[in-house]
Write a structure and sequence with these properties.
- By secondary structure, the protein is α+β, with helices and mostly antiparallel strands.
- The protein folds into two domains: about 210 residues, Phage minor tail protein U (Alpha-Beta Plaits, 2-Layer Sandwich); about 45 residues, no CATH class.
- It has seven helices and ten strands.
- Helix 3 runs antiparallel to helix 4.
- The radius of gyration is 25 Å and the shape is globular.
- It starts with a helix and ends in a 26-residue tail after the last helix.
């Protein structure tokens, strides 16, 4: 797995959640249990309503060129969609079972939901007014192919219809640690969107993209070989105030900012 592959998956999930598909916000990140095989060879799901599950599956880079091991080449992104009889609800007016409002729970409507979801995937990820979709497209150099398959199961008397869209895209190499990010570029916009929406994975990207030479700790802590709080407790240094016993400087002789 690479940083760009993870970013592609997150951007796609966020775009689909904001894009108004039939599944609403039930877009799953790499959830393996969304589909599983039963002992009888059928399919089962742990979901309670129609869903889209997004995975970054495989990548192949034949010509690494100047990017070296940061290259990603062609990446496969999987969009699994599913709807099952267990997800139905009862229409209060008619008493009929529906997959969702206005969609009776028939095999034909199961197929219709999958068809619409497959169409909505392309519509949402191509939407110029969806900022997450815009970031997704920004990581893509070219679209190498799209393949759609479907499956169904009636194992244990539970009807389940499933679809899978495999999108194959050529993407940029991962950025170098410490590389300046253009605020208008895909990485700059991606990180800004993550921060604005408090996406939990933001801290992982910040750690991975930081300049490795800076280390994991502030310069003052590196020189003292202890946390700032411990240094203050031992009265070795008053941070933001007057030095007690030591004068701090980095190896170049410049003063270390400690406030």
């Amino acid at each position: 797995m690479s940083l760009t592959m993870m970013a592609l998956r997150i951007a796609a999930i966020k775009a689909l959640k904001a894009g108004g598909t039939l599944v609403g916000d039930n877009v799953l990140d790499s959830q393996i249990s969304a589909f599983d095989h039963t002992a009888k060879g059928g399919l089962q799901t742990d979901q309670q309503r129609p869903f889209i599950a997004v995975y970054t599956d495989a990548a192949k880079a034949d010509d690494l060129g100047q990017a070296g091991l940061r290259g990603n080449g062609v990446v496969d992104i999987l969009f699994n969609t599913g709807v099952a009889m267990t997800m139905t609800q009862t229409n209060r007016d008619t008493g009929a079972s529906e997959i969702m409002e206005g969609f009776p729970a028939t095999d034909a409507h199961f197929e219709a939901v999958l068809d619409v979801l497959e169409w909505q995937l392309g519509r949402v990820l191509s939407d110029p007014d969806n900022p997450w979709a815009d970031v997704f497209r920004g990581f893509v150099l070219s679209y190498a192919g799209k393949h759609h398959v479907r499956s169904s199961s009636a194992a244990d008397q539970v009807r389940l219809a499933a679809g899978q869209t495999r999108l194959r895209v050529e993407v940029f190499a991962d950025p170098r640690p410490g590389q300046p990010m253009d605020p208008e570029g895909p990485w700059g916009r991606f990180l800004a969107l993550m921060e604005a929406e408090a996406v939990p994975q933001l801290v992982l990207f910040q750690m991975a993209l930081a300049d490795a030479s800076e280390g994991a700790y502030p310069a003052a802590e590196q020189l003292l070989a202890m946390p700032v709080a411990d240094a203050e407790a031992l009265q070795l240094y008053t941070f933001g105030g007057v030095a007690r016993d030591v004068t701090l400087s980095d190896p170049s002789g410049a003063a270390v900012p400690v406030s």
